[in-house]
Amino acid sequence: GAALGLGPLGGGGAGPGPSTLSREQQLQRVRQLTGDISEHGRLKQLDRAVGAFEQIFAEGLHPTGYAYSTLLNAHVLAGDLAGGARVFEAMMASKCRPNLVVYTTMLKGFCAAGDMTAAVHLLRRMAHGSPPLMADIRALNTFLRGCVRCGDAVAARWAFEMAGSAWRVVPDGVAHVALARLLSQSLALKELRAHVEARREEREERLKAVAAARSASPPPPPADAPLACSFWAAGRCERGANCRFYHDLSVVQLDEAAEEAEGAGGAGCDAPMTAHEVATEAMSR
Length: 285
Fold this sequence. Notes:
Blueprint: H1 7-10, H2 23-42, H3 46-58, H4 65-77, H5 81-93, H6 100-112, H7 116-127, H8 137-150, H9 153-163, H10 173-185, H11 189-213, H12 230-234, H13 256-264, H14 275-283
Helix pairs in contact: 2-3, 2-4, 3-4, 4-5, 4-6, 5-6, 6-7, 6-8, 8-9, 8-10, 10-11, 10-14, 11-14
């Protein structure tokens, strides 16, 4: 991987003195260099991405949290996990504390490399940090994709247990299909049947709630309901059940046709397999 030579990452000394630019000019310059890091990272030009980051220090400027996270992503995209870990630790040591997006980027790198032990350690480190950060649905699905890549059903079961307890995340269709695939691969057919049946019951309960909300006499929203979700009101909220805002079930969603197809057992020949289809295929072997 590329080595960082300036600033805290490479131990190259303090560098030049503070910049003489105004604060607004400094921020603008850091944003410009961060954009360069992003573009070089997208093209997997890691040396150039590192060079753009080092230029921040060379000009007497201070990297923002976004600059650190952009460089981390460049290392992950290039497959340089060791370099990414150095960036992550340098960010931890700076005043720019990693947020959930940064942790998920590092998690993506470990999962892509098949290092599920490191991925589990990172998720635990998140939860025990200051302040503690709990995995969201994106982090859960990132982790489960790593489990599928490695065939690690044990880690996937652990993630589902954490989702239902400490993380307080509601697994979506992507997560359920991932677990179903792993249970199928490990020939845990009894557990797979139970998982699919629980999923079917959840969907039936949701359909009942939707039907009630769209009836002639819909129930009023809960007295303690949060503010309404503007994305849901517009027809699509990607957070789904994990959204912190109120979802009025009487509002028709743009992806309801796909959900209905899933409940019927398929969504077209080119669609990803549903948990039901994975279970059916496994049980027919």
